[in-house]
Design goal:
The complex is a heterodimer of chains A (309) and B (258).
Chain A: H1 2-19, H2 29-69, H3 91-122, H4 125-139, H5 143-157, H6 164-189, H7 192-200, H8 205-233, H9 237-242, H10 261-269, H11 274-303
Helix pairs in contact in A: 2-11, 3-6, 3-8, 3-10, 4-6, 5-6, 6-8, 7-8, 8-11, 10-11
Chain B: E1 5-14, E2 17-27, E3 32-36, H1 43-49, E4 60-68, E5 71-72, H2 80-86, E6 87-90, H3 102-112, H4 118-131, H5 135-138, H6 151-164, E7 169-173, H7 181-194, E8 199-203, H8 207-213, E9 216-222, E10 229-236, H9 237-242, H10 247-253
Parallel strand pairs in B: 2-10, 3-8, 3-9, 6-7, 7-8
Antiparallel strand pairs in B: 1-2, 1-4, 4-5, 9-10
Helix pairs in contact in B: 3-4, 3-6, 4-6, 6-7
The chains are: A mainly alpha (309), B alpha/beta (258).
Chain lengths: 309, 258
């Protein structure tokens, strides 16, 4: 090692003498100071950005953590439990949130993915531009507008009850455009050469899309879906407008009320009693956890996908 | 197995832009034909019209005839998918399917077109990999991803994939331009063997490569940028490189332009 060093040193010395005519003397003090200032600003911004995040997570953990440790939380509903009583669980709300998310995904994923396939693989000309424009508009629709639209159609026009399925429809309006956009990006990343390679083997276009393009983009598409799902699970406006709360476990999408974590938070929030406040924080922490798990799942899928570079 | 290709008065367009004009040529069966010429002269475009890959590009269309043993590839009732099953293609950059193992890459063409018999597929995989001089290097790791091979191996994998569907003709679009000299040699040796069974058409920028592998050579050129490319001369490789009829050919081959 030392012999190598001296050899390197010798050649470095010759290079240095070659550059000696230009002034290389020391670091400039002014640049050093600028560097320090920039470093402090960048770190400062980073810390400021972290404050609310850590604060929220910290409060939820401190105030709601003990709720999640009780086994009842994961096995009981709030049936028959008043605001001033301790006890019961959140299973009705967790289950409701998961059911609605699942149904929303079941409707949104095929529509979203197929729309993206159309836009990337088939769409040319006016229709494609119109579809793309609509998706852009839908992406910008606030969740409460989506909820009111579904209310107007479902309740006012058709005269149906406010039920879980109506919530799913509103959430679908919010989820489809995010899936279209994320899937579109992933499909565009699939190199055109793979499509051409498949065509050159005499494989028809639709088969090329299903067997080559979609599998190649699979992990990216799934990641996009899971992130979209995580976002939709935290949506509250459609739930407040279309999904009345209940303390009981409910599984029927088309009749009766179905609890969800956001509506549970909203209900218990209005009670100024400690057991209810504890439940608010417990439900908040549970929601954060579920969304965190979905995000992690998205990352795992991306990590263990078959396509690696 | 091998078939001959006759091109008659072929004009090739990208939308309204005429990229290539008035190509008439014959590609002999069981031989290697090289397309040479400066960049942008349309040699790859001509190659891609031979298996109707040109029209995959939006706006791409042609005028004129391409006959495969007297069958018009551009007849109205001809299915481009069927044409591509008869005329295989190898691309400039190796492009194995990244989600598939080596075995599945070779079997892709047959599998995607509905062949399910596993024994038969395995036979085809072995035969094709042997045909592409890759079998000995990969036979112990057929289930590993195709993208894990070296560039030269990937290109031979793509050749194996193309010959697995037993085409009549094999088109190669600068198959060695992304490869090192040793891999290039391996591919050129392979082309020599392939011409016993297939009609091979190869586009190349490397004149020595054309001289080494091709029986016949076609020289394409364009008058000026923005003008359509044309077939200047087509002859046996020997004549093209020693005593071409056209001055432009001689200038290009001797390195005076392009």
């Amino acid at each position: 090692m030392s012999t190598l060093d001296t050899a390197g040193g010798a050649s470095a010395a010759t290079t240095r003498s070659e550059y000696a005519s230009g002034d290389l003397g020391g670091k400039s003090a002014g640049r050093e100071i600028k560097n320090q200032i920039a470093r402090i600003v960048v770190w400062g911004c980073f810390l400021i950005a972290c404050v609310p995040l850590v604060w929220i997570l910290g409060s939820a953990l401190v105030k709601g953590g003990h709720m999640l440790l009780s086994p009842d939380w994961w096995s009981h509903s709030q049936a028959g439990i008043t605001a001033r009583r301790v006890g019961g669980g959140a299973v009705h709300a967790i289950q409701g949130s998961l059911i609605q998310a699942l149904v929303t995904a079941l409707i949104s994923v095929p529509i979203g993915v197929m729309t993206a396939v159309y836009l990337v693989e088939y769409g040319r000309g006016k229709l494609a531009r119109a579809v793309s424009f609509m998706v852009d508009i839908l992406t910008g629709v606030p969740s409460i507008v989506a909820a009111l639209f579904v209310y107007a159609v479902w309740v006012t026009t058709f005269g149906f009850q406010r039920v879980a399925f109506a919530v799913c429809l509103a959430l679908m309006l919010l989820m489809v455009p995010t899936i279209v956009r994320s899937t579109e990006e992933m499909l565009k990343l699939v190199p055109n050469e793979l499509r051409e390679a498949s065509y050159a083997l005499g494989v028809p276009k639709w088969k090329t899309i299903f067997k080559i393009v979609l599998p190649t983009a699979f992990s990216g598409i799934v990641t996009g879906i899971l992130l979209g799902l995580a976002r939709v699970m935290g949506e509250t406006a459609p739930l407040l407008i279309l999904g009345p709360y209940t303390k009981n476990i409910a599984t029927n999408l088309f009749s009766g009320n179905m609890a969800t974590l956001p509506t549970m938070i909203d209900r218990d929030r209005t009670e100024a009693l400690q057991p209810a406040i504890d439940r608010v924080w417990g439900a908040a922490l549970t929601l954060i956890l579920i969304i965190l798990i979905l995000n992690l799942l998205g990352r795992l899928v991306a990590h263990f996908s078959k396509v690696r570079n | 197995m091998a078939k001959r290709i006759d091109v008659k008065d072929l004009d090739i367009y990208y939308g309204k832009f005429k990229a290539v004009e008035g190509v008439t040529m014959t590609v002999e069966p069981r031989s290697v034909t090289a397309f040479i010429g400066p960049s942008g002269c349309g040699k790859s475009t001509v190659l891609r019209t031979l298996n109707r890959m040109h029209e995959v590009i939006p706006g791409g269309h042609v005028d004129g005839k391409v006959l495969l043993d007297d069958q018009d590839l551009y007849a109205p009732n001809m299915d481009p998918v069927a044409v591509r099953r008869m005329i295989g293609m190898v691309f400039q950059r190796p492009n194995p399917f990244p989600t598939m193992s080596i075995r599945d890459n070779v079997a892709a063409g047959l599998k995607l077109n509905g062949m399910k018999n596993k024994k038969q597929l395995d036979e085809v995989v072995e035969k094709s990999l042997k045909g592409a001089n890759l079998w000995n290097e990969v036979k112990d790791r057929l289930d590993k991803p195709g993208a894990g091979l070296s560039g030269g191996q990937q290109q031979r994998l793509c050749i194996a994939r193309a010959i697995a569907v037993s085409p009549q003709v094999l088109l190669m679009d600068e198959p060695c331009s992304a490869l090192d000299p040793i891999s290039t040699l391996a591919i050129e040796d392979l082309i020599h063997e392939l011409k016993d069974k297939y009609t091979v058409v190869i586009v190349t920028h490397n004149m020595q490569q054309a001289a080494r592998v091709a029986d016949n050579t076609a020289f394409f050129n364009l008058a000026a940028t923005g003008k359509p490319g044309k077939l200047v001369e087509m002859n046996t490789t020997q004549k093209m490189f020693n005593n071409p009829d056209e001055k432009a050919t001689e200038d290009y081959i001797s390195g005076r332009f392009g």
